[in-house]
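Table S2 (text version). Query chain:
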Amino acid sequence: MLVVLDTNVVVSAILWKGRLAPLFELLNRRVLTPCFNPETVAELFRVADYPHIFKQSRRMGTDLKSVFARVVEAGIVVEDVKISETVPDDPSDEKFLACAVVARANFIISGDSHLLRLGMFRDIPILSPRMFLAIFKKEI
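Corresponding structure-token output:
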């Protein structure tokens, strides 16, 4: 199953696990294939250097950039394209929508309220991690 994971979901699944641990398990078992484009990959690695993220990764003894590299390597990276639609409250989120369209993703998984308010984009459901995991609980 092809999924676009918002950066906040990837970071939370790796560093704060908790309720998102099953999502990371689905990635590890290759039930889910994460989809990225150059913009989403760049954001992932940029976020790794944010002070609170860096501090948490050190606290856990996790080389976050190495984990990100493995997650990206396990997925697919599609080309960047521009889409005509916008995310009114946060245009920077458009990269996830564009990635989902090019990758022909089955779902976009995000904790971002700007994306979640859309609910659907070009027939691709946008779900919170909790909603996604509730629907696919049998896979876990």
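Notes on Table S2: The beta strands are 2-5, 33-36, 76-77, 107-109, 120-121, 124-127. The mean pLDDT is 90.
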